[in-house]
Amino acid sequence: MNPENINREFLDEVLSGNEVDSYYHLGVSSDDPIVAEMRDVKAVVMGGSGGRMRAFAEQWAKERDGTSVCLPKEDRFTVCLSSGVLFASHGMGTPSASIAVQELMRLMYFAKGGDLRELEKVFWVRVGTSGGVGLDPGSVVVTTEALMSDLKPYRVLDGDKGEIQFDPNFPADVVHGILTSNASKNFPVIAGKTVCTNEFFLEQFRLDGAIRLTTPAKKIEWLRWLDSQGVRNIEMEGAMLAGYLNYWGFSSFAMICVALLNRLEGDQVPYTPQELAEFSDRAGDVMFTYLRTLFK
Ligand code: R2B
Ligand code: URA
Known about the structure:
Elements: H1 8-15, E1 22-23, E2 28-29, H2 33-36, E3 43-47, H3 50-64, E4 68-70, E5 79-82, E6 85-89, H4 94-111, H5 116-120, E7 123-132, E8 140-147, E9 155-157, E10 163-165, H6 172-181, E11 189-196, H7 216-228, E12 231-235, H8 238-248, E13 253-262, H9 273-294
Parallel strand pairs: 3-6, 3-7, 7-13, 8-11, 11-12
Antiparallel strand pairs: 1-2, 4-5, 5-6, 7-12, 8-13, 9-10
Helix pairs in contact: 4-8
Bound molecules: 1,4-anhydro-D-erythro-pent-1-enitol and uracil (URA).
1,4-anhydro-D-erythro-pent-1-enitol binds at residues 48, 92-93, 128-130, 200, 235-237.
């Protein structure tokens, strides 16, 4: 961990009981009894949709002969504690997901009593959907590096003083572990770079938005450039996720996304809810296969 990058000025006041931390968007506070039950959490699994996270938590509880308890306030995010794993939704896009990730990091710091050796053992993973770059729909991508649409790392504005940049890398040993534990799946599971955009239509060079700022030729040029740089898929949260987890110095985290379509062939996501669920389940399947190896 990087203790110098952890906001201990605030977080240690909470630990010592001088302050109560309200994880406002998660709907829980540091003095809530359920937080004490999170002491043994080994993994935080995140995904965009609350319904999917709740279903994952129930699936995990059943598999582990345990129970799943979800926090009562679900109007922003759904968070369920299930047999040593926290399943949490983060909504769509970096602004939403950054709130979930920061509150979950604070929550884990408190739940682990500020013990950095215990905190470091927590495995973080985002399971999601994406647009593939030159991939067959249904392929699963394990991200090696997540960059913004200009292939530069995640940045936040520093007022009028420029930008602050974050580390875009995902730990290579975890990527390797996910690939090897999933070697016998009957669909492709590959490693590659991921582009993380701030917009589903404009920054992903779609031709089917209400607003269109690109042309078919410019879109293909951007996608071919991504392809030539080793980018395999496009989504909307990964660069921030890698950046924030690297900032605190976590060493075990990943992003696993199914490609719903090949962007070189189109922009629309034309599937029925059932087909979509089947594709999304593949990312969950890959995640659970790896998660089980951590609970052996
Ligand atoms: C993938 O899919 C969502 C947009 O449809 C977004 O949250 C993402 O990263
Ligand atoms: N999610 C994205 O961000 N882009 C896609 O094309 C599909 C899912």
